[in-house]
Amino acid sequence: MSTKKAIGDSFAAIFILLISQLIAQGIATAFGLIKVPYGICNIIAGLLYVGLAYVFLKAFAGKIVKLPMADLGMPEFAVKKRWILTAVLLPSLVKGIYLLAFSGQYVSSNMSGTQIFNTLSAGIAFTGIAAGFVEEMVFRGVILNVLKKKWNIKAAVIVPSILFGFVHILGMNFSVGSCLLVILAGTMVGVMFSLIAIESGSVWNSGVVHAVWNIVIIGGGLAIGEKADAYSVMTYVLDSKLFAVTGGEFGVEASAISLVGYIIVTGMALAMIRSEKKADRVLSLIHISEPTRRTPIS
């Protein structure tokens, strides 16, 4: 595979992400025009986003990349228990640290029941599950594996992770400090998701961690930040204005608290990968050292 093709395939995968999102939102908007409740439209948009992205990526893998989906980190759906546990613990502990260790005030957005349903349906179905899994299919599925075949596993992890960090500042009018913090946090979280996908052998595991993180941290339920979030049911407004605590203009996902969480999970995944490689080497040595068995002469 040439460098030009590897880069072209990577950007084509990102294009599939964008076009899937636009089509899904367009169809959901059309449902809204015929008086389908807005909250239901959010769920439709989420389902369509995941479904369209998978179908388009499967066609892309077969026709353009010439690889089966399993070789792009998308085998039959299965998730390891340890990554389900990690998916729950990581955002819960990060949010728990803020609520228990930092002073602040709970501020309600005073949403009606319908507004709460609309907000949570978008946060769970679209921002959470759909965005989490689609981003993993594209970044840790197609891009990581295409670059691994062209270069090596280190480049395949680092390059998409940096790209993942930069994607989160596109179109944002952030200060230089906030941009640097977002790129650092985005790169680190990209490395974390990459190592989860590598250890588990599929993006479904990193997808679960990504989706649950999105739901808990930015899903519209309880937000945490420097000021009240009108798009969340309630906000825990921090008294602290420290850049490292609040995450700057991007929010707590780019904070030092979250960054520590990313580093810990990354270290866990890396330790598992090294342990599995060591076990494979031992098994290989045992196999080599076994004496050749002769078939007895009858």
**What Rg is obtained from the alpha carbons, in whole angstroms?**
22 Å
Order of helices and strands: HHHEHHHHEEHH
Number of strand segments = 3
Q: Quick one: biggest sheet?
A: 3 strands, mixed
Structure description:
The protein has helices at 3-33, 38-65, 81-101, 113-150, 153-167, 176-200, 203-218, 243-246, 256-289; strands at residues 104-108, 222-225, 234-238. It is mainly alpha-helical and 298 residues long. A three-stranded mixed sheet has the order 1-3-2. It is globular, with a radius of gyration of 22 Å.
Topology of this structure?
Layout: H1 3-33, H2 38-65, H3 81-101, E1 104-108, H4 113-150, H5 153-167, H6 176-200, H7 203-218, E2 222-225, E3 234-238, H8 243-246, H9 256-289
Parallel strand pairs: 2-3
Antiparallel strand pairs: 1-3
Brief account:
With 298 residues, the chain is mostly helical.
Keywords for this entry:
3-stranded mixed beta sheet; mainly alpha; 9 helices; 298 residues; disordered C terminus
